[in-house]
Design a protein that fits this description.
single chain, about 300 residues, alpha/beta, Rossmann fold, 2 domains, four-stranded parallel beta sheet, 8 strands, binds zinc ion
Length: about 300
């Protein structure tokens, strides 16, 4: 190919591949950034605070929580059709979106908030083990968002993406992210300091949502109540969880506001250990400020101190 032909081909390729997103935009029209999950929506707004260049929108209902096994609604499809950009959790959390995205918006720009984050936790391949979740063996645990230490890294990934898409405000995105990350890292240090003083650091969670929080804080998750998030185990399954709790000498069971707490309460009572609620901020009020995340995590810290710190 001659030079001119190559250039023409390149231009056509760039236009067709969605890379055109990086082109300058009219100042009056912000980037419509459609965020898949609630925590990613909060983080995106934290990074884009004060910028007229980005309008963040939440795709899934704020009350939903983790979208494991979610099925797209017509409202979701409409939001998808109007978006300039998709901001996602990544690591398989958006499996439900793969086919609709390919069909409806194959060229939509996608920001994966987990891209490049190291130290990912593998999902446990064996049923009944900690970290079991509705995922394929060998997949990475997608719940980075539920650990303030990882939230600090997620906002860094988001800031670099928005800096690239809206270079005129790159400094603002980076400053917002740095401030948010500093708060999250301080909070993560507090989790670690508190957990270091707990006499028993072994806990049971409802689904694999707190694996990063536990690792980053120095806690150890010895069992999960629900292998399939939101689905109660059988009677035999419950007995085996109770047995596991006793054998592994777990200190407490923690349920999540996004799922019914009944099973967690029952196994805790049977095993004779306390039960309390930890909130991964996977869902929450529709109009919450980005600071809602930190408030939810602070409450979790207080809950952990109250439940695990006393014996
Ligand atoms: Zn989940």
């Amino acid at each position: 190919m001659k030079g001119r032909a190559i250039r023409a081909w390149l231009a056509a390729f760039i236009l067709c591949s969605g890379l055109a997103l990086a082109a300058p935009r009219p100042a009056a029209r912000p980037i419509r950034a459609l965020c898949t999950t609630y925590p990613i929506y909060l983080f995106t707004r934290a990074v884009c605070q004060g910028s007229p260049g980005v309008a963040a929108e939440l795709m899934l209902p704020s009350s939903l929580g983790c979208p494991h096994d979610y099925v797209m609604t017509p409202v979701d499809m409409r939001r998808l059709s109007e978006a300039d950009l998709l901001v996602e959790n990544g690591l398989g959390m958006e499996d439900f979106l793969e086919a609709p995205l390919r069909k409806a918006r194959p060229r939509l720009g996608v920001v994966d908030s987990s891209a490049g984050i190291s130290g990912l936790i593998r999902m446990s391949p064996e049923p009944g083990a900690a970290g079991g979740d509705h995922h394929h063996a060998g997949d990475f645990n997608p719940h980075l968002f539920a650990s303030p230490r990882q939230a600090a890294r997620i906002v860094g990934v988001l800031a670099e993406n928005f800096a690239r898409l809206d270079p005129a405000r790159a400094a603002l995105y980076r400053k917002n992210a740095a401030l948010f990350a500093a708060r999250m890292n301080r909070l993560a240090d507090e989790f670690k300091a508190a957990a270091a003083a707990f006499p028993n650091k072994r806990i049971v969670t409802q689904h694999a949502v707190f694996d990063y929080l536990a690792r980053d804080s120095g806690l150890s998750i010895v069992a999960v109540v629900e292998e399939e998030p939101g689905q109660a185990p059988s009677a035999a399954g419950m007995l085996s969880i109770v047995r596991e709790i006793r054998e592994k000498k777990a200190a407490a069971v923690f349920t999540e506001p996004q799922y019914p707490a009944g099973v967690g309460k029952t196994v805790a009572r049977e095993a004779g250990i306390p039960v309390a609620v930890l909130d991964p901020a996977a869902n929450g009020p529709a109009n919450a400020e980005p600071s809602y995340y930190e408030a939810a995590m602070r409450e979790n810290l207080e809950t952990l101190k109250k439940v695990l710190g006393r014996r």
